[in-house]
Specification:
CATH architecture of the largest domain: 3-Layer(aba) Sandwich
Distance between the termini: 45 Å
CATH superfamily of the largest domain: Periplasmic binding protein-like II
Oligomer: single chain
CATH class of the largest domain: Alpha Beta
Order of helices and strands: HHHEEHEHEHEEEHEHEHEHEEEHE
Helix content: 40-55%
Number of strands: 14
Shape: globular
Number of domains: 3
Number of helices: 11
Largest sheet: 8 strands, mixed
Radius of gyration: 23 Å
Structural class: alpha/beta
Strand content: 15-25%
Amino acid sequence: MELRQLRYFVAIVDHGSLSRAARVLHIVQPALTQQLQQLEEELGAALLHRSAQGMLPTDAGKLFYEHAQAILKQVGDARSAVAQSADKPTGTVALGIPQSASGALALPLLKAVRAHYPEISLQMTEELTGNLIEQLKSGRINLAVLFDDGQLSGFAVKPMVEEEMMYIARADSQFISKRKVIPLDKALQAPLILPGLQHGVRPRIENIVRQAGLSIDNVIDINSIAILKSALMADMGATILPVAPLLSEIERGELRAWPIGGAKIVRSVVLCSSKNIPLTNAAGAVERLVLEVARELCASGRWLGARNLM
């Protein structure tokens, strides 16, 4: 198996046809077909099939595509690490951020990278926590902002901030009262619109509720922050979340947030990298900048409900 075969296969999947991939790769189509056939023979499985939509990966092809991407990225990182200057890092850095943290961190970080390291190309992806963990393990991303649930021992972990979770509902919701603090048992009486269990926030909430001897009986599971916001605005229920992903709506007065009494519901936000794959100079520079930006956001109060852990 050769690296060029991996590049060819990824290009075919990305472009959806042999002819388009051949043009992009600047090779003739018969040569591309031959390389694909050799790769399939070596693996003992069909990787692609023709359909009305073009060339699509088989189940085996989908699995191989993820590994091929990870291998090609690590090779690119290795080349960059050799070529980079420590004083002027360059190259591509892939950073993953969960949906519920991107509202506070993503834009300030993008601006900071452009200001401090214009020659670094930052590829930022917003995903569920479980997806980010898998991508970090496989090497498809260099860094990931994750929530410390005690299960991150396989990564190099740097603490960032601790976020308080609050009871949030539409400003005129039927599920609110005039209390300044909502007791946990009262908060659980409303239909709760929460991310699914694969999301980093949900297990933390479930654990705190169990420790208090209570249970969540009426839940609407929604994994999209945009859809969750729409459900809150339709007054289908309330939520328990950090303020960050709903900050714009709270600032406009469309949603309100209340502290939760009787239990301290917080989550620790950390920055993770692989223990097995060395960071390039560019990735190391972005790692330091993420921590610096998080510290500044806490100090200025722009990351509401967050306390610096550094």
